[in-house]
Specification:
This protein is mainly α. The chain is built from three helices and no strands. The chain has a domain of 44 residues. The chain is 46% helix and 0% strand.
């Protein structure tokens, strides 16, 4: 078991049988949302640009939060976007 001492941890090591991002996505069992966040983070400032990739990460993360909140009957929020928050007027 790894001990967190501020250095690299075992779970950051790339499996030896992984040659591409898709190999890592499959090996880690990432779903569609996780895979898209992973790919956008990897190409951070490359394709097509930083803003595009950041917006893609945000969109997929907010969608994952929305689905998480909607699937939890004990979650009082039921939303993840501040624009959906009821006003206190």
């Amino acid at each position: 078991m790894s001990q967190n001492n501020g250095g690299s941890s075992d779970y950051y090591e790339i499996p030896p049988d992984c040659k591409t991002l898709q190999d890592i996505i499959v090996k880690q069992g990432m779903d569609f949302t996780q895979g898209n966040i992973f790919k956008a983070a990897y190409r951070w400032d490359k394709k097509p640009d930083l803003e595009y990739n950041l917006n893609k990460i945000i969109w997929f993360a907010e969608d994952a939060l929305r689905r998480l909140y909607e699937s939890d009957p004990n979650n009082p929020r039921g939303y993840c976007d501040e624009s959906e928050r009821p006003s206190n007027d």
